[in-house]
Design a protein that fits this description.
single chain; alpha+beta; hypothetical protein PF0899 fold; 2 domains; 5 helices
Length: 200
């Protein structure tokens, strides 16, 4: 073989080899490109799923917070209504006629007296309507219940509404209207709120 033929053969073989390498490179490039597109699509799907999760979680958090704020506001309104109702009760009790007020005071004394010989402290308004006849009747009733009926009207007056304070030495039993209504309110508030919610 002549040199020209050898050179031509080498060039021909080199061209064929280059062609094969080029085709193989194209196939490899297509394979890499397809793989990259597949991975990009997978990433895109993952981002979409994650974005939906984040959006759903954020929406859930906002909804939960809105519900909590709504419940707080509703509870505040209900407590305000309860407060107004108890205020109305206190105002109505203060407007009772004198004989009804005296009956109420008698019942309070009977419920709260421990020894039957305490001092009775009332409001300045109620002090004006308590007379000796009332004290005699009251002590008769207390004596039946406690064995001793020596309740005395104190020279001291306090702002207790239609309520009373019984005092013996340093000990006081506070049955002021505010204390009585606060106690009733504390016990009944849960039931009242349930009623306002429609009996739930």
């Amino acid at each position: 073989m002549a040199v020209d033929e050898i050179v031509d053969k080498i060039i021909s073989d080199a061209k064929k080899k280059a062609q094969r390498i080029k085709q193989e490179a194209k196939r490899e490039a297509r394979k890499i490109l397809l793989e990259a597109e597949r991975e990009a699509e997978e990433l895109k799907k993952n981002y979409i799923v994650q974005a939906k999760k984040n959006t759903t979680a954020e929406a859930g958090r906002i909804l939960t917070q809105a519900r909590l704020e709504n419940r707080k506001m509703l509870l505040s309104v209900k407590q305000q209504l309860i407060g107004e109702a108890f205020q109305l009760v206190e105002e109505r009790l203060d407007k009772l006629p004198s004989n009804k007020k005296l009956d109420f005071i008698k019942r309070l004394v009977l419920l709260t007296t421990e020894s039957g010989d305490e001092e009775l402290i009332v409001s300045p308004e109620n002090r004006r309507i308590i007379d000796q006849k009332f004290l005699k009747e009251l002590n008769g009733m207390v004596k039946k219940e406690k064995g001793t009926g020596k309740i005395k009207l104190s020279s001291e007056s306090r702002s207790v509404g239609i309520g009373i304070i019984l005092k013996k030495g340093n000990l006081e039993i506070n049955a002021s209207m505010k204390n009585l209504l606060d106690e009733v309110r504390a016990r009944a508030e849960g039931d009242i709120i349930r009623l306002l919610e429609g009996g739930k």
